[in-house]
Every structure is written in structure tokens, then in C-alpha cells.
Amino acid sequence: MTARERADRSLASSFERYLQDKGKGRGGDGGNYRRNAARELERFAEWAAADRGRDDWTGVVPDGVDREPAFEDLDERIFREYARHLAGDRGLKQNTVQTYYRYISAWCGWCVNEGYLEAHYAQRASAMAPLPEDDGRKPGDQQAWTSEQRHELTRHVDEQARNAIETYTTLPADTAPLDKQRERYEALKAARDRALVFVLAYTAVRVGELLRDPNDPRRRGVRWEDLSLDDGSMDVYRKKQQWDAASLPDPVISPLRSYRQLMDPPTERWPVFPTFDQRTLAGLVQDELADRGERPEAITERREEYARDLLLALAEDIRPPSITTDGARSILQRLSEAAEIDIDHPKHDYLAPHGGRRGMGEVLVRAFGYTVAARYLDNSEEMVRERYSHIEAGELGDVATEALNEVDSLNRT
């Protein structure tokens, strides 16, 4: 295809190939980046066709021409207009504007490499001029659990799990089977929540490395086979797209060991943190038993023998999916409210999963410095220094205060 033929093609004709190149997994059909980029490309295409934007915006196609927006219509002036549209017409926060523009800019750069465009117009100074200043912060990525918050939350889930497990394990011998199952289910749920909170609070593992991501087939959530409680390690699929061992410090071992003993998973391939969503489990159990040749009447009778479908799944080794990252956020919202934790944050009114990682980063930097913290956090030392620069700034401020006090005391004498 010649450069002229590429220039004549519609913008949308390039999207799928670009997204496949940027996607993850087999066929490039997974990953959060692909999903977010697809959304912004669609919005850009709608804006270019005058289906989005100001009432007086006529799009990028010249007047009197009846066709879809094509690459020949793009230049730095068009990207400047889109930057202005993002910054003003949509009322977005400044960092969000920067993020959305970067998706379009990345696609523009790809188009240059593929021969659709002659130059990377989106990166030219005149095109980027309307964008607001980027203060270097990522939206919603600044919460860090304080030591007090971490202790309050872990104390709450530990108490809830201990009470639920004690209630279940001390039931009278003549307790009805369904009543006993209900107590086991409550104990399992409390033990799962405790284990999840402790892992998020103390390992600094990214929540996307720990749980299932519906947009990335490789992130299916950690399984029991990935954990070595004796060695204090856990294999996770890292952000850098490879498997690696993460540390399980002492506070995490006991909750996980107790939880595993209570669950007694049929195989090591069971997820450590399975979903407890009743609708999901009901459909899963019915479909799996049907695939095994069970008749509908028999499936109904079998389900009636159990207080919850999760317990039937355990008995029949019907492996449920792991909870998702969104599921973890819902759990932490529920637990933060139940624990009545005081939270002062502009975006989150609960202890968000990433806050556990950032909070652990604060502890490590203060206790052992940037090098050790970087290894534990699976980040470069440069990035850790950048993200936790406020700690060094505070320490330097203390040094300056001490120096001023010393000089002032000398002058007074």
C-alpha cells in the first residue's frame, strides 16, 4: 500500500490493528491499556466526525466533502483543536486531560511508523499548547494507608475471622447440616477477607498481580499452587509481563494458613481468593453439573443439599473464578465502613487496594531506604525515589530545622 493510499483511508480503519499491537495475551485482545485506548480512539473518531464537541464544531473533513475522517485530514492544527476540546469542552481534571491525550498521541506515533501519517503531529509544541500543566500525579494514585489505618483494618478483619471460625468450630454435635454449612460459609468469607487484607497490607503486591483482571486473560488470580507458606513466597505475574516471586512476610502467613485449612481446596489449582458472588457461583455449578451429565432435577436436588453453591463447588471440585480487582475494591469499601476507619482523601472514602502498597512503600523507605524498598516493591530505585520524594524532603527539612536551631543558639550565646 502506497503512502497516498494510506492517507486516503479512514481513521477508524487503523484502530483494530493498533489495538492488537498494544493489547496483551494471545491475539492482543486483552489488557487494560487496550480497553482504555479503544475508548479514547472511539471518542476521537466521533469528535473528528463532528459527532462530539461544540455545537459549532464541523469536524475535520473539509466542507462539501461527504466521507469519513481520513488521515489526509490530520495535521498539528487538528490535534491542537482536540487538545483544546479535552481541556475545555469536557470539563476534565488536568491530569485526566493529559492521560486521554496521551492515548491519542501514542496512536498518532504508531500511525507515523506504519506510514499513515508523515509526522507525529500530536507531539508538536503547537498541538500540545492547550493542554493543562501536568503536576506529575496520577489521578487517585496518591492514597497511602497510614500505620493507624493499617492496624485498625487488620485488627477488625482478624477479630471478625476469629469470631466466625470459633463459632463454626464449636458448634454442638447435633447441629443441623445446613446450619453447620451456613456457619462454615460465614467463617470462610471472613477468613478470605482477612487473608486478602493482610496480603494487600503487608506484601506491597499490586492488586492486579494478585487477582483476576477480566481484560487480561493471563491475570487469572493467584492459586494455592502459587503460594509457598513454608518458604514465605508467592509467585505472581508482574507488571513487567513475567512471573516472579513476591515475599510473604510473617504477619501474612498465619491468616493464609488458617484460611487454607478451613477451605481445604480440592486441588492446588483453586484460586486463593475465589468469588463469593451467588449469581456467578449458581450459574457455574449448574453449567458444570449439566456438562457432567446431571439432569436438571438432580442438579436442583444436589444444590438443595448445600446452604451455598460455594460449598457444593468445593465438594465437587467445580473451580470458581478469582475475585476481580473491582471486587477487591468493593470488599475494602465494605470493610472500611464496618471498621469505622477515619479516612481523609479527596477521591477515596475507603482504604483502596493501591493504598496498602503505597503505605508499605512508606514504611520501607523510612526504615531501610530507597534501594531495599525498590526491591520489595518491584520497581526501579529511580521510580521509588520519585514517588516517595516527600519523605526525603521531610527529612531534609528536619536537617535544616536542626541546623537553624544550632546556628540560632550559637548567635544567642
Automatic annotation (TrEMBL):
Taking the record's annotation, the residue ranges forming a coiled coil are none
Q: Does the keyword Transferase apply?
A: no
Report the protein name in the record. Answer: Phage integrase SAM-like domain-containing protein
* Key word Nucleotidyltransferase present: no
Could you tell me the superkingdom of the organism this chain comes from? Archaea
Concerning PROSITE patterns, the annotation shows: CB
- Identify the Pfam families for this entry: Phage_int_SAM_5
**Which GO molecular function terms does the record list?**
DNA binding
The protein's matches in Gene3D superfamilies, at most eight in alphabetical order, are given as: 1.10.150.130, Intergrase catalytic core
Q: Which UniProt keywords apply?
A: DNA integration, DNA recombination, DNA-binding
Which SUPFAM superfamilies does the annotation name? Answer: DNA breaking-rejoining enzymes (SSF56349)
Core-binding (CB) domain residues are 6-112
Please list the GO biological process terms of this entry.
DNA integration; DNA recombination
